[in-house]
Design goal:
Blueprint lengths: L10 H13 L1 H22 L10 H5 L1 H14 L13
Helix pairs in contact: 1-2
């Protein structure tokens, strides 16, 4: 439950908020619990420390998909979105 309250600051919070609209809150919570158990298993098996991937992991993984999602959300609210690259300084 705590992971679901972290918004998008942690990987688990981002995973919950990404799955909850599609699966529902309870199933998304079970999916996050499964991710936590998988991480604990790998930590115990490999004797490794936990490394959080970050809340922006999914946006960094596929930036084009993130832009399509943002555009679709803005269009649903009645806005038009244009993406311009930031000029290198």
């Amino acid at each position: 439950m705590a992971a679901s309250r972290t918004k998008d600051k942690t990987y688990l919070g981002a995973r919950y908020h990404r799955l909850a609209p599609r699966l529902g809150k309870r199933k998304a919570l079970v999916a996050v619990e499964h991710s936590m158990l998988t991480a604990v298993w790998h930590m115990l098996t490999n004797n490794a420390d936990y490394h959080d991937l970050g809340g922006d992991y999914f946006a960094r993984l596929d930036p084009e998909r993130a832009m399509r999602r943002i555009t679709r959300q803005a269009n649903a609210l009645g806005f038009t979105v244009r993406f311009d690259p930031i000029p290198a300084a």
